[in-house]
Structure formats: structure tokens, C-alpha cells
Design goal:
single chain, alpha/beta, 6-stranded parallel beta sheet, 12 helices, binds NADP nicotinamide-adenine-dinucleotide phosphate
Length: about 350
């Protein structure tokens, strides 16, 4: 591996609080459970960008029909199945757990360490925008945690690929006014959001009603049909109350650790629909071709259409403690979040 990002799911996995998408019958389940280097311990990390340096067999086992996608030494690759344990400089894994990144060299030159955060975060964004509601150009998608890495990809990809506009909620928290303004500028200019609103500003009924009127206006008279929730609790309730009749909310994370609650009236009279999305499951259940197409769609978008990856803060793998200290003491003082990325070659 060259670089691997540190995602919230990695922290939960290390704490033993994250699920596994593998069934008992899945051949990858046991193969990926342990590191060949340290058979008694698993390795953290579920996303990354690297190169093939050695192959143990001439024809390898990627599950495409004509083997046209078989890996070669020198290929640029990312993760195609969850649970590989990417926080290491070298991994021996079955070839069909990787996905070849076409134009990898160009991607590396353009994005460097940021490239490692493109695939799963961007893939999550693409799937949620495509698989639940058939969005039309000009439609509005509403999301919370708009300043998260996934949120940043959602707003850009909705605009680039579907012509839809994204309205993002984010926490003002302890940000100063100038930091908040900097964040709003970043999310609207680089992230292509149509509107960024502080959750704290929607806490009374009149403010919420004014926001919902604004949403309707932005959507040419229609409130959003799709909301993406990764926070839960009150934040999810704000999304639900802003959806149109028959609208859909997709939950893909629970950062507040609060449950999603929905009123009976919203279910019966408003006919709202709730779904969950888990990219790990998507990767396990879809073919190599589908994973390869999506990975390379993201690369093309980045190289051709000015999709940008979230900002990153790079740490060598030997500095895990320093990185965790930085996350807990410095991150909340930044106007714009940075995702931790491990430099897997610098030990
Ligand atoms: N289901 C899937 O397949 C899938 C795939 C990828 C990611 N995810 C999930 O998506 C979420 C975002 O991931 P990411 O990598 O984009 O994260 P990230 O860049 O680290 O951003 C974390 C986001 O969560 C917010 N947050 C943190 N603690 C919070 C709290 N207590 N209450 C409300 N908001 C809080 C942060 O807001 P502040 O900046 O204000 O702290 C920030 O917007 C995570 O929950 C992750 O597990 C799910």
C-alpha cells in the first residue's frame, strides 16, 4: 500500500463495534481475517491505494469472464473487498479482492495521498445518489454532515454526474464566524453545494419553516425526494421533516450515536421511506466489473471533470499515537476538516 485513509469505520472496527458483510459461506471471510505476517492479529484499514509489486501466479483469479482485467506487476490498485487491512506497507491478498485503477499514474500525479480517499467515500456517494431515487437534473438532495468527506463527494458528484443540487447541513459547533464562513465558501465553491446551513440555526420552528420554504424554491416548487443521513438523532429528524411526500431518507452512518426516530404521521400520511446503505455489503455483493467501472468512473471524474478529493493530513504509520492526538485536539479547531491518511511506506 502507498496510502490508506483513516475512516470512522476503521475506528469502530478497532473497537470491535463494526459489522462484517461476509456470510459464513464467503471464501474471503477466513482468508481476510488474519494477517499472514502476524497470524494472531488483524490489521486495521479498509481503503487504500497501492501498486502490485509481485504476483504468485501467472493467471490470477479476478472474476471477470474473459480475464481481461487480470492484474500485472506495476498495476495501480485499490481495495475491492472490505476487511483487507490496508494499514501496512505490504499485503499479500487474493487478486480478486483488489480493483485495478486505470490511469493510476495520472491519478497519483494529480492527487497523491488524497487519491487513497477517493474510492470508497466516492463510491458510497455515487451509490446513494443512484440506487434509491431516480434523480432528475435540477432536483435538490438534502444531506447532513455536509462537511464530512463523504458529504463533500456527494455534493460534487450530484452536480457533476446528475445535474442535481445539494443542500448541506453542517454543525457550526465551536467554529468562529470567520471559520464558518470559510467552510461555507469551501463547500459551495469546491464542493458545489447550492446552500450550506448550520444545524444550530434550524432549532426553532420558524427558522425551520423558512429553510423548508427556501428548499422548495431551490427545487422549483418541490421539496427534496432524497435525503442522506449520517448523523441520526435530531439532525436526521430535520432531514425527515424537510422531505417531500413519499420522499426517501438513506442512512449510512450514525455519528451522533443517537437513533433515527420517525413519527407515525411521517410514515403514514407523508409515506416517507427509510433505507440503509453499507458500501462494504455493496462490494461483497457486486461483480468485479461493477466495482471496476465505479472505481474508474471516479478516477475519470477526478482527472477530467475537476472532482476533488477531501483535504487530508498525512501521518507515517509509525505515528499512530500522534495522529490520534491530532484528531482529538486539532481537528475541531479547523474550519475545514482534514481526513487522516497514513503514509504506508514511511515507517
Ligand atoms: N455506510 C457506508 O457504507 C459508509 C461509507 C463511508 C462512510 N460512512 C459513514 O459516513 C460518515 C462520514 O464518514 P467520513 O469519512 O466522511 O467522515 P469524516 O470526514 O471524518 O467526517 C465526520 C463527520 O461527522 C460529523 N460528526 C462527528 N461527530 C458528530 C456528532 N457527535 N454529531 C454530529 N455530527 C458529528 C463531523 O462534523 P464536525 O466536523 O462538526 O465534527 C463530520 O461532518 C461516518 O459515519 C462513516 O462511518 C458510511
Amino acid at each position: 500500500m502507498l496510502h490508506a485513509p483513516w475512516n470512522p469505520a476503521d475506528a469502530l472496527t478497532v473497537q470491535g463495534r463494526y459489522g462484517s458483510p461476509y456470510t459464513d459461506q464467503d471464501p474471503h471471510r477466513d482468508a481476510l481475517r488474519q494477517s499472514p505476517l502476524h497470524p494472531d492479529c488483524t490489521v486495521a484499514g479498509s481503503e487504500g491505494f497501492g501498486r502490485v509489486v509481485e504476483l504468485l501466479q501467472a493467471t490470477n483469479d479476478i472474476d471477470d469472464e474473459d480475464h481481461s482485467n487480470s492484474l500485472q506487476v506495476g498495476d495501480w490498485v485499490t481495495v475491492g473487498k472490505p476487511g483487507l487491512g490496508t494499514m501496512r506497507s505490504t499485503m499479500w491478498v487474493p487478486t480478486d479482492t483488489l480493483v485495478r485503477v486505470e490511469r493510476g499514474e495520472e491519478l497519483w500525479d494529480r492527487a497523491g495521498p488524497q487519491a487513497s480517499a477517493l474510492f470508497q467515500l466516492g463510491g458510497t456517494a455515487i451509490r446513494m445518489l443512484r440506487d434509491f431515487v431516480s434523480l432528475q437534473p435540477g432536483e435538490i438532495v438534502l444531506q447532513n454532515a455536509g462537511n464530512s468527506a463523504v458529504g463533500y463527494m456527494v455534493s460534487q458528484l450530484a452536480h457533476l454526474r446528475l445535474g442535481a443540487s445539494v443542500v448541506s447541513l453542517a454543525r457550526k459547533g465551536s467554529k468562529t464566524t470567520s471559520q464558518w464562513n470559510e467552510l461555507v465558501e469551501h463547500l459551495t465553491t469546491n464542493g458545489n453545494c447550492s446552500l450550506v446551513v448550520a444545524e444550530e440555526d434550524l432549532q426553532d420552528r420558524r427558522a425551520l419553516a423558512a429553510f423548508q420554504a427556501q428548499l422548495k424554491q431551490l427545487g422549483n416548487g418541490t421539496c427534496p425526494r432524497l435525503a442522506l443521513n449520517t448523523v441520526g438523532g435530531n439532525s436526521a429528524s430535520l432531514l425527515l421533516s424537510s422531505l417531500t411526500q413519499g420522499g426517501t431518507m438513506v442512512t449510512y452512518g450514525g455519528m451522533s450515536l443517537q437513533p433515527v426516530t420517525i413519527s407515525t404521521a411521517h410514515l403514514i400520511f407523508k409515506d416517507l421511506k427509510l433505507h440503509g446503505y453499507w458500501h462494504s455489503r455493496w462490494m461483497v455483493q457486486h461483480s468485479y466489473k461493477e466495482r471496476h467501472d465505479m472505481v474508474n468512473e471516479l478516477v475519470d471524474a477526478l482527472l477530467d471533470n475537476s472532482l476533488t478529493c477531501p483535504p487530508v493530513q498525512v501521518f507515517p504509520l509509525s505515528n499512530v499515537r500522534q495522529a490520534m492526538d491530532w484528531e482529538s485536539t486539532q481537528q475541531s479547531h479547523l474550519a475545514i476538516r482534514r481526513k487522516i491518511v497514513w503514509d504506508c511506506q514511511e515507517m
